[in-house]
Amino acid sequence: MAERVEQLFVAFHSRTEPERSGDEVARELTRRTGFPVSAGVLKALRRGISDGDPVVLAALAGYFGVPASYLTGSGPEVVALHRQLELLRSIREAGVTRLALRGGGTLRADADLSGLVRALDAL
Known about the structure:
By secondary structure, the protein is mainly α. It has helices at 2-11, 22-33, 39-47, 54-64, 69-72, 76-93, 110-122. 63% of the residues lie in helices and 0% in strands.
């Protein structure tokens, strides 16, 4: 789960802005949950030191606009979303500003997404 929490912070910011700070996210999670959430709690989640409170995990997922199941569940939907976030990060880091997929095909297989991520990372 630490990898998924880290992916949220890494994927959801623009190329020209830093990732959201633990303090910023903690303040918003405190507001959403109604109880104090510290930047230290988020740091522990990112490092895999803690599994986290399910309420905090759901609020964290909501903050980044992904389903709570991304942090609380498992299965093919979680893997697919994780790959999509990797792709988003790679596209941003490669400086891509426009993207058009053509040919009527779809990227469904993990291998297709992983290959695209590797190609973008190599740019």
